[in-house]
Amino acid sequence: MDGGQSPRPQQHHRMPEREGNNNHDIEGMDGAAEGDWWQNSSSNALLRYDDRGSICEPLMRKRTINTTSQIAIVGANICPIESLDYEVVENNLFKQDWRSRKKKHIFQYIIMKWTLVLLIGLLTGLVGFFNNLAVENIAGLKLLITSDLMLKERYFTAFLAYGGSNLVLAAAAAAICAYIAPAAAGSGIPEVKAYLNGVDAYSILAPSTLFVKIFGSILGVSAGFVLGKEGPMVHTGACIANLLGQGGSRKYHLTCNWLRYFKNDRDRRDLITCGCAAGVAAAFRAPVGGVLFALEEAASWWRSALLWRAFFTTAVVAVVLRTLIEFCRSGKCGLFG
């Protein structure tokens, strides 16, 4: 070398391995300059040293508090979504149970199914008529007040009346949905499809969801939102069918023991399929359209007996709506008709 100077030997530092099975939490390694080196100290903290050997801030420090999430406990029910059992296990026990039933029980089972689909059609038709009646009267009254103010050349007052009424209706619809039944948000068709395909989410067919669905859709449509009552009517029909199929609600202590035959997933699925078809029929006054919607879009399990029950349900809805609309032609329903 020039000048007879020998090069300085390079020092290689190796970090000793950590002893024990301690858990370390990385505090951060930002700002570590090139050439800095770090090693483990006896205080169980991983320190960083610079070229001069001075200690910088610790890179890793031993965690002394157990922060394990208690949700990770095996067996904890952290998700309310359940899968439904639609398959019938035809084993010897199941066949023996059906053979042990008398003809009277089988006849009662069949009559109960047709009676329930009749009730589903009646109630869904009444709810559909109530929705139309309420929307036409609320929206019509709002427009009448605005028109009277504009005829009097009070344009700013008319604007305030129209905008204020829309704001109140929209706020009321959002409030009952947010604070009573958040599961009622949206059209409800994806939730019904999920249930008919074996996925049961929390409160999607509960009585509170039915209440918010009916009044929320009325307030939302009356407020002038760009939405309709078709999707909510599908969800409404499914909620009505679910409540009838399980004999009410156990949460509100409204159950009936005589509906014990239908407290299973398979029969409830068939009733909700009929309710879905009834909702479409109530929204469009189209019985065949409701059956086709349930067959093509919603249900994944279908058979001929369910086809006839669904068509009977939609026919009942059409008859109810036709009768009530003819009654309102006499002018006894306010602004409706």
Automatic annotation (TrEMBL):
It is found in: Membrane. It is a multi-pass membrane protein. It comes from the Eukaryota. Residues 14-27 have a biased composition (Basic and acidic residues). Coiled coil: none annotated. Residues 1-33 are annotated as: Disordered. The keyword Nucleotide-binding does not apply. GO terms for molecular function: voltage-gated chloride channel activity. This is Chloride channel protein CLC-c. The lineage of its organism: Eukaryota, Viridiplantae, Streptophyta, Embryophyta, Tracheophyta.
